[in-house]
Every structure is written in structure tokens, then in C-alpha cells.
Write a structure and sequence with these properties.
Elements (H helix, E strand, L loop, with lengths): L8 H21 L9 H13 L3 H25 L1 H4 L5 H13 L4 H11 L5 H23 L4 H9 L4 H39 L4 H10 L3 H29 L6
Helix pairs in contact: 2-11, 3-7, 3-9, 3-10, 5-7, 6-9, 7-9, 8-9, 9-10, 9-11, 10-11
Length: 253
């Protein structure tokens, strides 16, 4: 079974302690400062986020791009699995060639090029997130192909199964547990990359709220957006964990 390691209860205690300490120190003991805002001011800032920073449309834009692109990338990997699970074809050869560039060129640099080429396109954010997720999944598959157990493959071949069927059904099932674990890495990575992308490009998105909050020196809005983003990532991770545990419940050792 694919068993995701549960979070330690001690972690939740520490997180609760951080919030209690923040309330005690910055609400009652410390004066107004430029480090952390008072909790009461943070609560009041949510109305400003809603009206002045257009939180609903920016929040929905980022969340939609991330989870639609992640789902679409996994779907494309699934549909193309017969071609992607292999090393001697044009598709995987082309994608693996991009790995060389990824070692020396940060992904966000590609984002800068996309912003330069398509400065007024909101759809380009989806393209950026989709390609980031899709290429990462393919590279993970290629890496794990070197670690699969050959006895399963040899047994399938001895029964006369076609190579295409072996790739599509057997190898894919063997790779799915590791790919599902990699989804959590991609999930957090796309959040970071897309916020940076939106920060630089402008338009819509949570990254735009961060940019405006910094420009206006609005600490409460900055901190509130940070809390909203953290909570959303946490909920997204929990949902992703529930889905993967339900549908990918085996492991191949």
C-alpha cells in the first residue's frame, strides 16, 4: 500500500503555539512594528483584501491555474504513457534533452521569457504551470524506470504480452506509486513558481496581491495573504493525499 507518513501531532502543537505566541506578543505586549502585524489588524485587513486587492478574482485565478494544470498534466501523462515509458522514442528523447537545460537554467527564467513573449496573455500562466508539472512527471518516470523490477517484465514477456501492453498496463502500475509521491513535490513547486510568475507578470493572481502589498508597504495585507496561501496549500495537500491514497493504494518493492 502507498502509505503517506502522517504528520506528527507535535507539529500541530508547535504550530498552535506559534499562533498563541504571535497573539500574546504582537497584540498585547509589543507596540506597532514592522516585523509582524497585530492579529486584530490582520483580521481587519481581510475586508481591504476583498475590496482593494480584489482577493476573490486573484485567489480563484491562482487556484484554478494550479489545480487544473496539475490535473491536465497527469491526464496527459496517463494518455501518453505508452510513449513516455521508454527511452528510445522522439517524445522522451526531446523531454530528456530539456533536463540538461534545467540543470543550469532555473525554471523561472523560462517564465521570464514567456512574460516577454506574451506580456498581455493571462492564459500563458496556465501554459507555464502545465509544462512545469508535465515535464517534471515525465522526468520522474524516466528516472524510476531504471529502478523497476525486471522479474515482472520478464514474466509478462514470457506469457507473450506485447511491449505496448507491458508499458501501458504493467510498467505504468509499477510507476504510479512513485509518481503519486512526486505529485506532492510538484504541488508545492508549482505554487512557488506560479506566485513568482504572477509577481513579475502582473495581471491576476495571488502573486499580484503580494506585489501590491509590498509596493504599498502594507504589512497586514502581506501577512494576511501569506496566511491565506499557506492554508490553501495545506488544504490542497490534504485533498491530494486523500485522492492518491484512494486510487493508488499499492506499492511495488
Amino acid at each position: 500500500m502507498v502509505i503517506m507518513k502522517p504528520e506528527s501531532k507535535n507539529v500541530h502543537y508547535y504550530v498552535t503555539a506559534y499562533f498563541v505566541l504571535w497573539i500574546l506578543l504582537f497584540e498585547f505586549l509589543l507596540p506597532v512594528n514592522s516585523v509582524l502585524p497585530k492579529p486584530s489588524i490582520v483580521l481587519e485587513s481581510f475586508s481591504d483584501l476583498w475590496i482593494n486587492y480584489k482577493l476573490p478574482i486573484n485567489f480563484i485565478s491562482t487556484v484554478a491555474v494550479i489545480y487544473i494544470s496539475l490535473s491536465m498534466a497527469y491526464l496527459f501523462v496517463y494518455l501518453l504513457r505508452s510513449f513516455l515509458i521508454g527511452k528510445n522514442n522522439f517524445i522522451t528523447g526531446f523531454i530528456l534533452s530539456l533536463e540538461w537545460f534545467s540543470k543550469y537554467v532555473p525554471g523561472i527564467a523560462i517564465g521570464l521569457l514567456l512574460i516577454f513573449w506574451f506580456p498581455d496573455s493571462e492564459f500563458i500562466e496556465f501554459i507555464f504551470a502545465f509544462l512545469t508539472a508535465f515535464l517534471s512527471m515525465v522526468l520522474k518516470i524516466q528516472l524510476k524506470l531504471n529502478e523497476v523490477r525486471l522479474d515482472y517484465i520478464d514474466a509478462a514477456r514470457s506469457l507473450g504480452m506485447e511491449e505496448r501492453v507491458i508499458k501501458r498496463d504493467i510498467l505504468w502500475k509499477m510507476l504510479q506509486p512513485e509518481l503519486s509521491k512526486h505529485l506532492f513535490v510538484i504541488h508545492l513547486y508549482i505554487w512557488a513558481m506560479l506566485i513568482a510568475f504572477e509577481f513579475m507578470k502582473g495581471g491576476l493572481g495571488i502573486g499580484v496581491i503580494f506585489k501590491k502589498a509590498i509596493e504599498f508597504q502594507d504589512l497586514s495585507a502581506l501577512f494576511s495573504t501569506f496566511l491565506i496561501t499557506g492554508l490553501t496549500v495545506y488544504l490542497g495537500t490534504a485533498l491530494l493525499k486523500a485522492v492518491t491514497n484512494k486510487f493508488i493504494y499499492w506499492s511495488i518493492d
